[in-house]
Design goal:
With about 220 residues, the protein is an all-alpha fold. The protein has one domain: Alpha-Beta Plaits. The chain is built from 14 helices and two strands. The chain has a two-stranded antiparallel sheet. α9 packs across α11.
Amino acid sequence: YIGVVLYDADQVKAAASVEDPKDLYESQLSVFLDPFDPEVIKKAQEQGINHSWIQSAQESPVYKMAIKWKIALPLHPEYRTLPMVWYVPPLSPIMHHIANEQDLSVDGYIPAVDQMRIPMEYLASILTADDTHQIRRVLLKMTAMRIHMRAKTVGGVDELKKSQLLKEANTTAEELEEMVRLLAVAKYNERFVIPTGRREMLDDLYFMQGSCSIEDLAPPEGRK
């Protein structure tokens, strides 16, 4: 997935300077801007950002996964480089350990750490500066998405327990439907939202090509 994310460059240093490494994730999120906010759009236009970039930011899959749904996490935030390549923690290694999916409960879908094929602490050491709470939150939401689609397509899931799981995961059926759309069935243009180039905004390259001689470009020792 590739997409545009608007951010406040003036807040980058402060975001990378928080004392507790576990606060770096939320600190970096605070740097990102809402592309639907009229004030953000106005400021972006004043900074010379054209409409195609703003529209791409509004349709960005990266914005949805990292900021709106908060299921993507930055790689090694403790390095304080504020990385722009984010990852969704893997879910399959956890689901293999569930013995009885019919008996749906929150505790059943988030087993003890020592039962996971990929320990939660290991994922936290890579993606959240050892903050296992954020890893648990993401995995719970991904699990809720899986159970929601199971109930919709296969059945056999108790609706009351499913609603309890969605509440525990702090999500809704509508949000999970959006996640399924992007993560499973989205087309190429939805996964890679890249704004088109605006050639009319560039300088006259043809004029510049004819007005700049080789003698002016060459170093002094090569002008003989």
